[in-house]
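User: Just a sanity check before I run the rest of the batch. Below are the structure tokens for the first item. I only need the designed sequence back.
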């Protein structure tokens, strides 16, 4: 067998620790698959003392707290960046690439927001920046789209791409547990982000959608143009009313090629109960991709957690080891698209995107309220598809409506006007319906 490929790891938290364990624990199988041994030679972590159990003194792995000692080590050929965040991750990855090293990162924020700068450095130095683990944990969705579906024009993709959020929604639908309780469990299990508001407010899902869309449509990474809405305004009743209407509520990332450009949006979404995606529960992620030739395909699996994410990190390391074994002067596959070949398709503003909508309007139970609501909707050219009005005795009641497709801008104006009616006594809930049907 050939000489080993030498790996350095920066960051030994949930993902980095899992990756090290997997590289050490499955070394023989990995060597057989890669065609040469993969050897970890240096690790940097903020708490080297605490890492002494994982990195045994007899392992021969150099342990320290400086990630730059890893990227500047002449012996290291592949750098695994699992620190997260921007600083110093951007400099660490940039320096590693400039030193001609191959880099594997699990850092979705870094790729989504600063990836284009880093890919440019990688291209200049003829190295690879691989990031399979940045999206959907253990599901190999990047490789699938970049390689398996490479012949297709991608029409749309839709995914449950935040495990913590899906876990929270699944538990809310099952009833009985508080939002905080479920979030704490997600943190203990290593699913949630260091700042869990990223899971709840949609930022984490928007990072992942940005990355997937750039591969699917060949567009530059455009995190800032992605419309992002979280799950914190949902109330348990929304999940129950959606069920009554034949839907489930999932926090979806949607990227869609339309005549106007590319839609990029993350928001709670009603999806038909007939759609398999509606059944994906707990921390699992699932992504549906529609290619013009292949049709609709779906990928499901654990979207977070130490071992699942490590599976994707190490898959990238093995790919790079094979590339080095083959003596490829350039990466075998480009990170995103070949330089200068990016599509110029615009990202469509959310205001112009048309969706059927679910509305929950808390009103005072009094004569004529329904007529006043429908009048406002009519004035904004919004037609109603279904209505649920619950029977209550006194006080406020929710009117729940499903509308036909309406541009977001019209719906925003209608919601503002409805909110100013004296009958309406609380915030109006609005949830968009998925723009695809189960059979599509
Ligand atoms: N916080 C993320 C999630 C981890 O819950 O999906 C994986 O990116």
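Assistant: Here's the designed sequence for the first item:
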């Amino acid at each position: 067998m050939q000489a080993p490929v030498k790996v350095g790891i920066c960051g030994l938290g949930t993902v980095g620790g899992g990756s090290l364990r997997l590289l050490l624990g499955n070394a023989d199988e990995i060597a057989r698959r890669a065609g040469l041994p993969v050897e970890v030679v240096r690790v940097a972590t903020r708490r080297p003392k605490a890492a002494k159990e994982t990195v045994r003194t007899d392992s021969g792995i150099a342990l320290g707290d400086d990630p730059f000692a890893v990227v500047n080590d002449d012996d290291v050929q592949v750098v695994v960046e699992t620190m997260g965040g921007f600083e110093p991750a951007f400099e660490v990855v940039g320096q590693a690439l400039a030193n001609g090293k191959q880099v594997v990162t699990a850092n979705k924020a870094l790729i989504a927001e600063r990836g284009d700068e880093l890919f440019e450095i990688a291209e200049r130095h003829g190295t690879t920046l691989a990031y399979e683990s940045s999206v959907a944990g253990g599901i190999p969705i990047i490789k699938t789209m970049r390689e398996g579906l490479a012949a297709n024009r991608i029409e749309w993709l839709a995914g449950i791409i935040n495990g913590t959020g899906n876990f929270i929604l699944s538990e809310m639908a099952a009833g009985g547990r508080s939002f905080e309780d479920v979030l704490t469990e997600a943190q203990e299990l290593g699913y949630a982000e260091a700042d869990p508001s990223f899971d709840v407010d949609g930022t984490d899902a928007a990072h992942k959608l940005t990355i997937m869309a750039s591969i699917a449509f060949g567009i530059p990474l455009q995190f800032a143009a992605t419309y992002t809405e979280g799950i914190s305004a949902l109330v348990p009743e929304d999940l129950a009313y959606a069920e009554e209407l034949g839907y489930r509520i999932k926090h979806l990332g949607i990227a869609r090629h339309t005549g106007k450009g590319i839609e990029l949006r993350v928001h709670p979404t009603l999806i038909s109960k007939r759609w398999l995606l509606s059944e994906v529960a707990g921390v699992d992620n699932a992504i549906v991709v529609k290619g013009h030739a292949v049709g609709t395909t779906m990928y499901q699996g654990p979207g977070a957690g130490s071992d699942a994410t490590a599976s994707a990190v190490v898959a990238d390391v093995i790919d790079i080891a094979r590339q080095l074994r083959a003596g490829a002067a350039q990466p075998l596959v480009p990170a995103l698209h070949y330089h200068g070949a990016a599509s110029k398709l615009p990202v469509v503003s959310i205001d112009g995107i048309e969706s059927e909508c679910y509305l929950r309007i808390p009103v005072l139970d009094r004569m004529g309220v329904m007529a006043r609501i429908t009048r406002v909707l009519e004035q904004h050219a919004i037609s109603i598809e279904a209505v649920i009005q619950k029977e209550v005795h006194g006080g406020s009641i929710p009117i729940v409506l499903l509308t036909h497709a309406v541009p977001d801008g019209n719906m925003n104006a209608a919601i503002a006007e409805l909110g100013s009616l004296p009958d309406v006594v609380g915030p109006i809930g609005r949830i968009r319906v998925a723009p695809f049907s189960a059979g599509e």
